[in-house]
Write a structure and sequence with these properties.
The structure holds two protein chains of two kinds. Chain A has eleven helices and eight strands. Chain A is of the alpha/beta class. Chain A has two domains: 236 residues, P-loop containing nucleotide triphosphate hydrolases (Rossmann fold, 3-Layer(aba) Sandwich); 54 residues, no CATH class. By secondary structure, chain B is of the alpha/beta class. The chains are: A alpha/beta, B alpha/beta. β3 of chain A pairs parallel with β2 of chain B. Chain A: One of its GO terms (molecular function) is GTP binding.
Chain lengths: 358, 138
């Protein structure tokens, strides 16, 4: 770490908002030196509750996050918010509009709102989000809320960086067949039927309840997205113990985010899920899964960078693509040939990677 | 898709400050900046100088564009600039003012640290080029 980054780190740990903002920019930009910075931050992180909030556009996520932040502040807790909006696939530009809804806590610097665009590709966004969460955690935030539109796999990966995931389902989100579909509804630890004062809210609640019941019966539950490959559900046909410590059934909360109705109940459920995570040991399991994914993503990025320079040496991707176009080669042969020297190097190396940590 | 999307992108806050409900210009600029590949954070209407400062600091934007059509620029802009200075963000934020600013007020705003003032009739290209050329290198 160079001297500038050292003092930046010191300022961040001292509670400078500017330094926190700057560190998150470095993370987003993948600026030189961001890696040792984040790697140092890990030592100071690990105390915050990380909550993910997702749902379709216009479901009321930002407004609910605003009320959530306000309520946590009233309880004396500090809050960090990472609000992610899509970027244009054509220009890379973005309009990040979530901040507009976060008016309840304006002027209170202890609510740190950061807008991020989905710029990177290939897991880059979830890495950047995880690192930004780590920075806010190290800064000393008690609650960190990650908010993103639940559109596709990329966003689901992002929201899964959180410990507890709330999915917002506005009334009239389609009939019960929608609830059979795979995807966003599966990752919920808590369901929030927002705009609960509107027509059709009861029906949406009912349909979600049926979906959850269905999951219980089959044993292929939608309960707990992180436990899908865990050990707590094999063979018992989805049976639940009454103390609730071995399995989690996602509760359904009704809210009206614009008035703040139901927000307290929502917070209670988030806290209950947190207690469940601790009691069941799921939290450690979850952290392991998350860190494994982080390591894999970093390795992929690094290997990718090595291959990019290999590509340059081979004359650049354009020339190779043209060779495929005119029929002189095919993509598989090109990939094999590019990878060949790398593989040979690895073989010759007799790799004895011995990692030891204290 | 392209590697262009990765790494750095110019971040801008487009801000409406004070009792001024005219946001058409701000919307046009926000959209144009987006199409130019910038990341734009839009503040929404009727923001207090404090809110603008808070957003500028937390979002760590390279560019702050303030749109004012109410005539209150001579009280609002200095408040924003002072707030930025308080958080050590004044030096490396490019501050632009757009809207209806009489000629005789412009020098004063520049002395406050505003980098450029874009009045009615400024072309979008001119604004974008100015941002590209002058956005702080960090």
């Amino acid at each position: 770490m160079n001297a500038d980054d050292e003092s930046l780190l010191e300022d961040l740990l001292d509670g400078s908002h500017r330094a926190l903002a700057r560190v998150i920019s470095k993370i987003e930009n993948r600026s030189p030196g961001y890696r040792p910075l984040v790697s140092t931050l890990y030592a100071y992180a690990g105390t915050a509750d990380v909550i993910g909030i997702t749902g379709s556009p216009g479901a009321g996520k930002s407004t609910l996050v605003d009320k959530l932040a306000e309520t946590y502040r009233e309880r004396g807790e500090t809050v960090g918010v990472i609000a992610i909006d899509p970027s244009s696939p054509f220009t890379g530009g973005a309009v990040l509009g979530d901040r507009i809804r976060m008016a309840s806590t304006v002027g209170d610097m202890d609510v740190f709102v950061r807008s991020m665009s989905a710029r990177g590709t290939l897991g880059g966004l979830s890495t950047a989000t995880t690192d930004a969460v780590t920075a806010m955690d190290a800064f000393g935030k008690d609650k960190i809320i990650v908010e993103t539109v639940g559109a596709g796999q990329n966003e689901i990966d992002v929201v899964r960086t959180a410990e507890t995931v709330a999915v917002l389902v506005p009334p009239g989100s389609g009939d019960s067949v929608q609830t059979l579909k795979a995807g966003i509804l599966e990752i919920a630890d808590v369901f929030v039927v927002n705009k609960a004062d509107r027509d059709g809210a009861d029906r949406t609640v009912q349909e979600l309840r049926e979906m959850i019941e269905l999951g219980k019966g089959s044993g292929f539950g939608n309960a707990g997205h992180h436990g899908a490959d865990g050990t707590n559900r094999d063979g018992d046909g989805g049976a639940r113990s009454d103390d609730g410590s071995t399995d989690w059934t996602p509760p359904i909360v009704e809210t009206v985010a614009t008035t703040g109705e139901g927000v307290d109940a929502f917070i209670d459920e988030l806290a209950a899920h947190r207690r469940y995570l601790e009691a069941s040991g799921e939290r450690s399991e979850q952290a392991r899964t998350r860190h494994a994914e982080e390591i894999r993503t970093l390795l992929r990025e690094d290997v990718n960078a090595i291959l990019e320079s290999e590509l340059e040496r081979a004359g650049g991707i354009d020339a190779l693509a043209e060779a495929v176009r005119i029929g002189d080669a095919d993509p598989y042969t090109v990939a094999d040939e590019l990878l060949d020297p790398v593989e040979r190097c690895l073989e010759e190396l007799e790799t004895d990677v011995d990692l030891e940590f204290e | 898709m392209s590697s262009k999307q990765e790494g750095e992108s110019i971040r801008c806050l487009v801000a409406k400050v004070g009792l001024d409900g005219h946001d058409r210009g701000a919307h046009v600029i926000a959209r144009a900046f987006r199409d130019a590949g910038f990341e734009v954070i839009y503040s929404g209407l009727h923001k207090a100088p404090d809110e603008i400062v808070q957003a500028t600091v937390q979002e760590d934007v390279d560019v702050l564009g303030i749109s004012i059509l109410s005539g209150a620029h001579d009280t609002l802009v200095p408040k924003v600039m002072d707030g930025l200075a308080e958080y050590g963000a004044k030096e490396d934020t490019l501050v632009l003012v757009g809207g209806v600013i009489p000629d005789e007020d412009r020098d004063e705003l520049r002395e406050e640290g505003v980098a450029a003032i874009f009045g009615p009739g400024t072309s979008i290209e001119e604004t974008i080029d100015f941002v590209r050329e002058n956005a702080p290198q960090r």
